[in-house]
Amino acid sequence: MSEFLHPNAEVFVRKSSVTVLGGKDALTNLDRCLTASLVDLENFDRCDALLCDANGRIQDRITICVLDTQIIALGSENSGTGTREALLRGIGWDEDVSLLDGDNAISHLSIIGQNIHRVLVGLGIDCLELSSSCWLEFGNSLISSSMTNSVETVDVALPKSELPRFLDILQDNGCHEITTDKWDAMRMLIGITEIEDLIGNLPFEVGLDELVKLDKGCYPGQEVHARLDSRGKVARRLVRLVSAKKFVSGRNKVEGIGTLYVTSTSSNNDANIAYALVPSAACELDELTIAPDRVVGLEPLIQN
Question: Which element (helix H / strand E) includes 184?
């Protein structure tokens, strides 16, 4: 168990964009626009996918929930308008698809910690029913889980009007809300990426190869992804850097290595953490000398 996690659990209220799709062709539209295969999804199924541009670069990461006659698409912060415009462009003239802005109607929470299940049992949730491939209906809430480097995260989607009461119930069961700074420190130690680490980058560069299904049919960026897959390598990869000094986001030149691009930063106790895109050749190293007086540790995000 990761010692940096809270001994019980903590909850982070995300600022996710929310798009609600309806119509008999909604799933077909999503399947045409996203990297995952969606056409066979059934009620309460969960699927994670990427929205990419024609150059294969990520524009949004989306979590899907099929719910009766509607589909809820949870996207990244501040990406809702762009994502809805991309989905709208993908609708055929004779297709039955509706798109609604659900940003102000639905809240998205993430729960992490060493004893998440103890908190959920206190709410009356059967944790044996939690899955990364489907959503569990609990009252007016939808609950699902995912694993990153053997650390579980539980996602909750619920009406925004019910958020205060749900947070109170979590707190009564020992799960307290955390700030964005605390979440960033936790998720970067776990290996979770956010949109600032992904946008404008290729899925293979940021460790999201598993969200790309090349055999599903056409989607924006598929040809680029297929070429990269056949080549078997990319020029750079996302890694975690650790240092006693704070990092600054942005581009840096490292002698003997090349360009290093810091996508996000955080601090945890005495350690400062950054996610950075570095040349693939440097990923085999345990440390980098990024300045004459500064050596930083280098760690892979995905730990097998």
Answer: helix 180-190
Burial class (CB in 10 A: 0-12, 13-18, 19+), 293: exposed
Which one-letter amino acid corresponds to residue 165? Answer: R
Query: What sections of 46-162 are H helices per DSSP?
Result: 80-89, 116-123
Find the helix packing angle between 163-172 and 116-123, rounded to 10°. 110
Segments making up each domain of the chain, as ranges:
1-234, 235-304
A 10 A CB-CB count for 22 gives 15
**In this structure, are residues 157 and 106 in contact, taking their beta carbons and an 8 Å threshold?**
yes
User: pTM score, two decimals?
Assistant: 0.94
Element (H, E) at 62: strand 58-67
| Both tokens assigned to 67 | 């719910």
Q: Please compute the mean of the pLDDT values over residues 133-161 and round it to a whole number.
A: 95
Token readout for 72 is 């809820």
Q: How far apart, in Å, are the Cα atoms of 60 and each of 199, 202, 210, 256, 286?
A: 7, 11, 15, 33, 31
Q: Between the CA of residue 214 and those of 41, 116, 155, 217, 223, what are the distances in Å?
A: 18, 35, 27, 7, 9
Exposure b/e, 55-93, CB count within 10 A at least 16 = b: ebbbbbbbbbbbbeeebbbbbbeebbebbbebbeebbee
The pLDDT, as a whole number, for residue 91 is 92
d(C-alpha 79, C-alpha 68), whole Å: 25
Which listed CATH number (3.40.50.720, 2.60.40.60, 3.40.50.300, 2.40.30.110) goes with 235-304?
Answer: 2.40.30.110
pLDDT-based confidence at 148, cuts 50/70/90?
Answer: very high
Query: How confident is the model over 121-137, as a mean pLDDT?
Result: 92
For the segment 251-289, what is each residue's pLDDT rounded down to a tens digit? 988 888 889 999 999 988 778 999 999 999 888 889 888
- What is the arithmetic mean of pLDDT over 178-201? 95
Is the CATH number of domain 1-234 3.30.1360.120?
yes
pLDDT given at position 285:
87
